[in-house]
Here is the input.
Amino acid sequence: MNETSEPSRLPLTNPPESGMNAQGQSYIANFDDHDAQLMVHYSTIVCFTITDELDRVKVWQTTIPSLALSWPFLRHGLLALSAMHYRLACPVDRQIYFADSARRHLSIALELYIPHVQATSAESCAALFAFATIVPAVCYSFLQAIDTELEGNDLINQFLYIWNYLSGPKAVAQEARQWIYQSEVASLVSFRRLENIIPHLAHEPRKALQALLVQCQPRYQDPFSDGEDTSTGWQQQDAMSERFGHYKHAIEMLSNAFPTSTGQPAQLGVVIGWPVFTSQTFLDLIRSKDPLALAILAHYGKALNAFSGFWWLDGLGRRLIKAVYQVLGEDHIHLIQWTLQESALLA
Here is the structure.
């Protein structure tokens, strides 16, 4: 594990000491020593590891901690993330302590968050959106650092579990769109509509996704060829066509998670949010271990692996690809050959 790596777009080897503003200095006085230490750690270091977009760093560094003054669920969410980052540099005998601290803060945060999200208001929407964005990072950090023995089905199911939390930011943004536009976190929200950009991708991902689309095409049979009930044959073809629509949409949305032919890299937020832009049916296909859905998932792992510079994602893309490899039968391994090209991936 690379415990010191930072996002490639942020030259932050020496975070500014002014990360904790005057307001922040005053409210950490209300924490015990442990939590005060974690909040300082968040505002001077952790806030730089959440995004790869420079214009959003200041919001995470100053605006979000200020919001946490009024919203305890957000404060506990920040403390949970900070505790997981802090444990990276701790001696082994202290790592359990900080992991337990992160679990405690996350548990409290979720308990406080749920009543507010059920009654979103103009006052709460900014804090709700910020918290909903933080939770997946906290969950991934547990998966990355603690649940390291999970493989195969267990790891895939854990990803699906974490993705349940990804709907939070989208739901808050949709319900409180106008309020958020006018809030302190407006710059964190992107309402850009994702499109199919496969034709504009760099050569390798373009070729891989195009080949995947071909593999997902339905293989129809003549419903009259075997003498069986033709209505059953047509129903099966309709089902295959519908399933292909979900595959196709997932792949087209996944195209936004790869660099373009002009060298434009994918954005972290788009890669993390990809499951939200697929369909519930597609996620159910992954859950049922449908081979083509798993193949698409492995290609997502390839995109995710490009962001291993973020401590809370380090190695997760490779582990996801390996998990799909372990679950797929030999007859379907050819579907994920491109994702297996990295050296020592399956070691």
Notes: DSSP finds 14 helices and no strands in the chain. Residues 322 and 346 are 6 Å apart (CA to CA). The longest helix spans residues 92-117.
